Structure to design on (994 residues):
């Protein structure tokens, strides 16, 4: 079964034992300048299910949208975390953190959210920043914003951070990160912006179901046209798949029900830094040159990790879900293997096997090793194609994009950002 | 006089602080302060209006997609675009299923913990729970072993010493009237609602590409298309890597049949679980319909256009009821809406301004942190104070149901029958209990319509009407140099309006007034309270250490501070 789950057989008993003996991991979930979309995404978790997460795997000690208690009792549940859980807790931050006006654009219990974030994240085993806003300020931090909104990296520089950008984040990546931690007692390998390689190591474009049409020059040219009905490539309708690092094309949403490209709308690049400005306008091509990266493997590592979640689920007796997921993972692996045959010879298992098992056999949350820049390790498990561009092995070296809304409007002296340097004109 | 502050108010859509003055065990005065501001109206400025819905929908991830719809409609009105009927229907299914999802999850996740101690179900007799469940509904999951299993899960949670979010509030046990068996039934249904919600997310993802934040809107319609039905060129068979796609296309034959079954599942859950639970709860707490009556002024912009005319018939009608009078509906026009920033952290003056003239100049003006009281701060909330021709109004499901009742249209009989069965008069809709009941009635009405919309879509597609987008004004070179647009609609939380101005093909001004802006409104320039503030006045607070009655009243609005302040 472990092999079917894309994990080496030797891992199966270890995973089962570790998960079953572990106490539920205490989690505090903070929301600042947020729309609540990442919470909504979390509540649709399928593997494991959200009720398994809430009742069996995690104990969410503080979440303002979910907890019964209010006011001072709620605040006490948060401020007593360190005392109640000497082995530590996991912090999740959703939403941006305003820094203008002494942080008073977002207060919780009368205190600036900025201070709460720093206090909670500094005391946490690790912090997961979910969504675009917690990543780098997102929409409140976009041009025209008035609150100097920033992400967790800036607000809590000492936090041991994992970032899951996206608007909202894909819940499969959150559960995979949590499962990775529960299983291996350490955080997944990330790039320099704290994004796990399994999820953000590959370009959307390279695993897109419509990629073949791109190769053949078959493009949608107007919404609903013949090309749209035939499911052709959306690049000319502004799809940012060639510029965006994410695993949406493989993992998709709601148990692989769909994703934006399947539904006929291009990717908007919502996992990318400063995406509201760097990836816009959504319905026009960016002026940058296409980064013609060959097929890369990091997203397949992601699939392996999602398979790992099935192991966690199975360990808790939810055999049906595990079976469902296994079928899906196997099917998808075959699909991926067929799609990339001859290009990426490394099996998924090989990539996952490079993850280190926990050194000590003691289960439960232990101090994880800091997320070292191990980027080269899993990638090196795959024989590199000859012409690997630099962007592949170091995903942090993203394509530099040069246009944003500021490039497209006349600078208004009354608008913030008007004193920014003149940007090159869009090629539209 | 005792001042009580609740901050954070949990189980709402964003940071919210409530303060009440309690005199002789009753709330004498109240203040609602939204404590978070993002400034999305400002970040929209300068962008391509065709992208506006993408950013506008980020106003709220719970009322998922509603602000995208409001935004895209406003741009379409500005540019004079009439969308195809198929796009209207798909939008109705998306927004309707979202409203149903919002009401169900709102009840089990945000309101129920005020009315029931879910962990008390750990001590219940599963056989008694089974008997009760069978007496109120014909849900198939009602056997004794089923409730035995749920009880074990709850007991495991309670015994673990880490009940987490399920840690009960400190309210005296007398505040909760449900028997242990009834607590076990509703706790089981809360867990079922979590699982059910996933199927609703699938439905949304099918039509929206993802959920939250569906990505299939486009100015002029929707990006979804039926699959190609014409001849297939030979070359497509020669692709070295054939497109891989296991899930069905949403508007293909298989996709439509999946949608049919998802909608059927939505309906079953509302009919067999959600509605019976709410009706049972309402029966137990009937006296709470006397509380939280509030303004008595109710506003509904109406929603779900049923035809493609300029003034379409709406499933939930538009209208306004004033001073508790449910006999005469007054007309609603967007020109009557205005906002004041008299009590808002804003630098502008207190004057009422129509949203097309609206300004947002944010600046915190309260006391320095840590904020222990709002007393002495004239400007105490980030929310603006919307008024309709100078009057504060309440919006939301209660207002929509009251207007639909007063309009004597199709929904009338369902609303009247449900209220009669509960022994409530229609005026009780806008009350602490009535708002909870109103949402359940509305969810029933809308979930019953979803299948009808899908049938219309199927028959249109079958008859060769494949259009989902009108692109005649997609090209900005055809746009006038300056034009204004607006839209009126409904989210689960209340009446939503978007106003924008397009100048030289860019957004020059953007203002949003959400249902929660109306409900969480602070005082206006004349010192009049907003809807929630008014509803809190008169609420009993027997135990100031645990003001559960105040929380019930707050949550009865299902307020969303993220929507209220954009």
């Amino acid at each position: 079964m472990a092999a079917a789950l894309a994990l080496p057989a030797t891992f199966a008993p270890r995973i089962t034992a570790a998960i079953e003996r572990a106490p539920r991991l205490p989690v505090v979930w903070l929301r600042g300048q947020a729309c609540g979309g990442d919470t909504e995404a979390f509540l649709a978790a399928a593997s494991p299910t959200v009720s398994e997460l809430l009742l069996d795997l995690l104990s969410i000690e503080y979440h303002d949208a979910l907890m019964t208690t209010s006011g001072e009792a709620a605040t006490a549940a948060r401020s007593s975390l360190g005392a109640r859980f000497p082995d530590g807790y996991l912090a999740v931050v959703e939403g941006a953190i305003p820094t203008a006006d002494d942080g008073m654009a977002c207060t919780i219990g009368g205190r600036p959210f900025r201070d709460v974030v720093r206090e909670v994240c500094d005391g946490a085993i690790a912090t997961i920043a979910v969504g675009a806003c917690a990543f780098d300020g997102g929409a409140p931090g976009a041009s025209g914003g008035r609150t100097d909104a920033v992400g967790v990296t800036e607000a809590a520089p000492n936090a041991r951070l994992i970032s899951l950008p996206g608007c909202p984040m894909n819940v499969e990546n959150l559960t995979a990160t949590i499962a990775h931690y529960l299983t291996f007692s350490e955080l997944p390998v990330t790039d320099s912006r704290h994004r796990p390689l399994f999820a953000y190591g590959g370009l959307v474009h390279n695993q897109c179901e419509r990629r073949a049409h791109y190769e053949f020059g078959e493009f949608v040219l107007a919404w609903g046209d013949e090309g749209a009905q035939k499911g052709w490539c959306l690049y000319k309708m502004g799809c940012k798949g060639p510029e965006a690092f994410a695993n949406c094309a493989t993992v998709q949403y709601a148990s692989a029900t769909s994703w934006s490209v399947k539904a006929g709308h291009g990717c908007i690049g919502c996992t990318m830094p400063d995406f509201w400005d760097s990836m816009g306008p959504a319905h026009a091509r960016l002026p940058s040159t296409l980064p013609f990266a060959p097929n890369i493997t990091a997203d397949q590592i992601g699939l392996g990790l999602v398979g790992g979640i099935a192991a966690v689920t199975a360990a808790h007796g939810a055999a049906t879900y595990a079976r469902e997921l296994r079928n899906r993972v196997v099917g998808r692996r075959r699909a991926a293997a067929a799609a990339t045959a001859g290009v990426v010879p490394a099996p998924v298992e090989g990539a996952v096997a490079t993850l280190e098992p926990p050194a000590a056999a003691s289960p439960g949350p232990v101090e994880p090793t800091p997320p070292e820049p191990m980027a080269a390790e899993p990638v090196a498990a795959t024989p590199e194609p000859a012409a690997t561009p630099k962007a592949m092995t170091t995903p942090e070296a993203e394509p530099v994009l040069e246009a944003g809304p500021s490039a497209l409007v006349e600078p208004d002296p009354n608008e913030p950002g008007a004193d920014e340097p003149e940007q090159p004109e869009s090629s539209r | 006089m005792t001042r009580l502050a609740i901050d954070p108010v949990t189980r709402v859509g964003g940071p919210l602080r409530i303060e009440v003055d309690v005199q002789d065990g009753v709330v004498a005065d109240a203040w609602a302060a939204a404590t978070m501001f993002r400034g999305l109206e400002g970040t929209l400025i300068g962008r391509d209006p065709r992208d506006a819905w993408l950013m506008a929908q980020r106003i709220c991830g719970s009322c998922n997609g509603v602000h995208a719809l409001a935004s895209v409609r406003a741009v379409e009105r500005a540019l004079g675009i009439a969308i195809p009927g198929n796009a209207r229907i798909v939008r109705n299914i998306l927004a309707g299923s979202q409203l149903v999802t919002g009401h169900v999850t709102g009840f089990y996740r945000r309101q129920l913990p005020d009315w029931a101690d879910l962990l008390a179900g750990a001590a219940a007799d599963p056989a008694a729970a089974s008997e009760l469940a069978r007496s109120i509904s014909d849900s198939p999951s009602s056997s004794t072993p089923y409730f035995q299993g749920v009880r074990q899960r709850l007991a495991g949670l309670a015994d673990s010493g880490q009940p987490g979010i399920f840690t009960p509030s400190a309210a005296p046990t007398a505040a909760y009237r449900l028997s242990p068996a009834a607590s076990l039934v509703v706790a089981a249904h809360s867990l079922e609602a979590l699982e059910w919600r996933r199927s609703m997310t699938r439905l949304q993802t099918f039509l929206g590409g993802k959920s939250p934040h569906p990505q299939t809107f486009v100015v002029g319609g929707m990006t979804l298309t039926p699959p190609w039905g014409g001849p297939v060129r030979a070359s497509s068979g020669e692709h070295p890597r054939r497109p891989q796609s296991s899930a069905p296309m949403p508007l293909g034959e298989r996709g439509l049949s999946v949608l049919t079954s998802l909608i059927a599942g939505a309906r079953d859950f509302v009919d067999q679980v959600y509605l019976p639970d709410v009706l049972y709860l309402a029966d137990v707490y009937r006296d709470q319909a006397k509380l939280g009556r509030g303004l008595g002024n109710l506003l509904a912009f109406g929603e779900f256009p049923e035809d493609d005319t300029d003034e379409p018939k709406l499933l939930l009608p538009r209208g306004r009821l004033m001073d508790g009078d449910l006999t005469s509906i007054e007309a609603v026009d967007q020109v009557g809406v205005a906002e004041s920033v008299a009590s808002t952290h804003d630098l502008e003056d207190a004057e009422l301004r129509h949203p097309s003239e609206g300004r947002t100049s944010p600046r915190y003006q309260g006391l320095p942190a840590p904020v222990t009281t709002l007393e002495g701060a004239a400007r105490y909330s980030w929310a603006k104070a919307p008024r309709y021709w100078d009057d504060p109004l309440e919006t939301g499901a209660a207002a929509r149901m009251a207007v639909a009742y007063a309009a004597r249209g199709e929904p009338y009989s369902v609303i009247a029958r449900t209220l009669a069965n509960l022994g409530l008069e229609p005026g009780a809709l806008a009350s602490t209990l009535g708002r909870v009941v109103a949402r359940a009635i509305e969810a029933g009405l809308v979930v019953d319509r979803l299948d009808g919309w899908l049938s219309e879509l199927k028959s249109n597609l079958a008859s060769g009407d494949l259009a989902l987008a009108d692109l005649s004004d997609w090209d900005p070179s055809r746009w006038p140099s300056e034009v204004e647009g607006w839209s009126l609609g409904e989210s689960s939380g209340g009446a939503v309006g978007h106003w924008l101005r397009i100048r030289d093909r860019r957004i020059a001004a953007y203002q949003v007034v959400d249902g929660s802006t109306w409900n969480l409104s602070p005082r206006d320039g004349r010192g009049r309270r907003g809807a929630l503030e008014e509803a809190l006045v008169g609420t009993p607070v027997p135990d100031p250490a645990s003001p559960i009655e105040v929380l019930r009243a707050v949550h009865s609005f299902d307020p969303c501070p993220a929507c209220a302040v954009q």
Summary: The mean pLDDT of chain B is 95.
